[in-house]
Amino acid sequence: MNRYVAFLGSINVGKDRLKMVDLREALEREELEEIETVAASGNVLFTHEPMPSEGLAEKIAWIIRDEFDIDSEVVVMTRDELAAIIAENPFAQGPEAGEEKFVHTMFFLDQPGDMQIKALQIDHEGRGNERIAGGTNALHVDYVDGVGRSKLTGDFITRRLGIRGTARNIRSMKRILAKMDELNG
User: In the record, which residues are listed under signal peptide (predicted)?
Assistant: First the structure.
């Protein structure tokens, strides 16, 4: 059995409210084991027979859609994939590091192209102080002045890139990684 984390998007916004206890029960019925939510709703640790992360993401998205009628973005990663995403974020460490609660990674099921990232940067130019960098199936953003006041919203990013995703800040991602390490013992 392998340990994974699933990042779920769009499950606690508007009319789409999902209790984690109900989600756990639905996932257990579909052969996911040792299910635990971490750091906030929408972060689910679990074990499963070895399987590609993309296949598990599709399986969990199907479960959420079938059981709860919610169309959720689901990104699944192993411990090493999560560690690599944290390490590649240019705003998470070193001399360019931003404040952990303001540094985010938006995860996508597909890789945004270099031209899409460049177009997003150009469209956002002059709209705020945020710093943007592409990643592996991800977009790294330093919300220098805070997320709440930013014009670089998830909807803005989705419209410009043409793909949906779900974002987490570095602080949460590090807590999840530490929890995965703790559980792997």
Answer: none
Q: Are 133 and 91 in contact (CB under 8 A)?
A: yes
Domain at 35, CATH number:
3.30.70.1280
In a domain, 181, yes or no: no
Asked, for residue 88, whether it belongs to a domain, the answer is yes
pLDDT, one tens digit per residue, over 58-101 is 999 999 999 999 888 899 999 999 999 999 999 998 888 889 99
Q: pLDDT digits over 7-47, tens only?
A: 998 776 556 577 888 888 999 999 899 999 886 668 999 99
Residues β-bridged to residue 36: 45
* Angstrom distances, CA of residue 136 to CA of 77, 83, 89, 126: 12, 12, 10, 26
Spatial contact of 79 and 184, defined as CB atoms under 8 Å apart:
yes
Q: Quick check: helix, strand or coil at residue 37?
A: strand
